[in-house]
Amino acid sequence: MRPVQLFVVCVLLTGWGPGLLSAAEFEELDPAYYHTGELAGSLRSDGPLPLYDADPQHLWNRLFAAISIRHSNLPSKRGGTPLARIEGGDRIEFLGWPGTTYWDEPETVARLAGLLDEFLNQQGEQLITDPVKRVILQRDLWAAFDFLMNQNITRRGDLPTRKRRTELCLRLARVMRALALPAEKLAELPDNYTLALQSGRFAATHEFDPRREYLPPRLLTDADEWPELDFHQPKLHEDIERRFVFLHTRAFRGRSYFRFFYRFPEGRKQLEEYLKQVDAVGVDWRTAGQNGFIHLKPDVPQIPAGTEVALVQFLMALDTNLKLVPTKLVESVRVNVYKSALGENDPGTNSGQGINFTKYTLKRRLAFANMKFGGLHREPDDLPIYRVIFESENAVDWGPRGRNFELVADCRSCHSDRQQTGVHTIPSLINSGGIDSGAQLGIVHTLAKGTPSPHPARTVKWKSTDETYRRLVEFLEE
Asked: Fewer CB within 10 A of the end CB, N or C, for the chain?
């Protein structure tokens, strides 16, 4: 019996799950992972996954495993007994915390360096020509490059350690260039969000039911229903475009670009009038300016029930000329649905207080199977996660919360407050990048209909001046 079939039988026998799963959901369950018990979300093996090729020992699979799979030994609950786990694999985050030493350990360095040399010596880029696989492997290697290079830029570790990182980064850069596609090929990459909608896998309405696999059907195409938002910009003589990028863009070091959208029950006009009211009477600008984040007054005009907020993450790529190119590939979609703006206890929502949080991420296993479901998969609400982005510069492996944090709890930590709810939980009303990145200049505004999103070009502009990108280009120009 195949692993997927065996797992399905086990689920049926144990009765596991929030309800009867559909055939599509059965098919989505990745046999490489545990889906129940204390090991849920962990890999069953530390061997390479058959993602880039059906043969687990294919060079691309072995290289991906070296930068994506790690061991942990943490308790499932605070104060519990540590449990050995195998982490990572088909995820979108690189498991690199600023305070880690894992990527500097001799065994880790030797393994990765050996595989990169094998790739370069054997012209490994010729083994697979599929453009989606090439651009995603480049993305995977880019995350490792940026992490290691930033460790050197901030001068972490002694001189021999930094020299080893430099040698590793040089190899990573060469492989990334070998995988690069011409700009015209990058423009032909699939629109996987549209493919996800066309697959029939996802619900077109949410009915305020957190169990529904809801993806907004007109999110990227109907500017009346789903207006895209842009930061307030003062009329200054200096070029401040680089300051208007999201915190998420900075956290991913410009390897992704983000776009965000609001949906009000009565559409665009209702939203625009609301934003004007908040800007005029709703913000304590002095406190906001001093703190670097928005500070709304207690009597700020409240959002209407039924408001939805969506944040969409797209993949950036490097073309054959090492130019930064925004692509159509969606890496993640976060959708927050406000059943109520009052924050009362509501067990019918997955937050428990009137908000449903959902997140969909790109899975290589699906994307490489002819973009099945657009490659997108909803992350389970109760999936134990490790927060990598938005952690302190001193965070060590697995972060301060370890495994004691689930997806919905992570969303709730930034977008929920039992004392102040509704609009108080939407930090994207302003540029929340901090004082040094143009924050507190005004409330966001909707983009005019027909206006191209400014966020891809801004991300290119921001990343082009980031020191990690400058070092990358310098390596390859030598």
From this structure: C
Domain that holds residue 11: 1-31
Supply the DSSP string of 352-399, one letter for each residue: SBSEEEEEEEE-HHHHTTTSGGGGEEEPPTT-B----TT--TT--TTT
Per residue in 109-140, pLDDT (tens digit) is 999 999 999 999 999 999 999 999 999 999 99
Query: Between residues 236 and 369, which one has the greater pLDDT?
Result: 369
Q: Which pTM value belongs to this model?
A: 0.91
Q: How far is CA 359 from CA 215, 337, 386, in A?
A: 10, 12, 15
Task: Count the residues in the chain.
Answer: 478
φ and ψ of 268, to 5 deg: -60, -45
The predicted-structure confidence for 42-56, as pLDDT tens digits, reads as follows 999 999 999 999 999
| Secondary structure letter of residue 447 according to DSSP | P
Instruction: Tell me, yes or no, whether 36 lies in a domain.
Output: no
Per-residue model confidence as pLDDT tens digits over 312-362: 999 999 999 999 999 999 999 999 999 988 877 889 998 888 899 999 999
CA angle 357, 440, 310 (to 5 degrees): 20
Would you call 57 exposed, middle or buried from its count of C-beta atoms within 10 A (0-12, 13-18, 19+)? exposed
pLDDT of residue 257: 95
Residues 302 and 439 in one domain: yes
Among residues 127, 161, 186, which one ends one of the domains? Answer: 186
Same structural domain for residues 382 and 429? yes
Shared-domain flag, residues 149 and 227: no
Residue 259 β-bridge partners: 312
As separate numbers, helices (DSSP H) first and strands (DSSP E) second, the chain gives: 15, 9
Q: How far apart are CA 451 and CA 50, in angstroms?
A: 42
Q: What distances in angstroms separate CA 83 from CA 87, 345, 440, one per listed residue?
A: 12, 34, 45
Q: Rounded CA gap, 325 and 34, in Å?
A: 36
Q: Which residues of 128-144 are buried (b: 16+ CB within 10 A; e: fewer)?
A: beebbbbbbbbbbbbbb
| Contact call for residues 346 and 353 (beta carbons, < 8 A) | yes
pLDDT at 450 over 60: yes
Ordered DSSP codes for 295-338:
-B-TTPPPPPTT-EEEEEEEEEEEBTT--EEEEEEEEEEEEEEE
Q: CB under 8 Å to 385, separation ≥6 — which residues?
A: 41, 405, 406, 407, 410
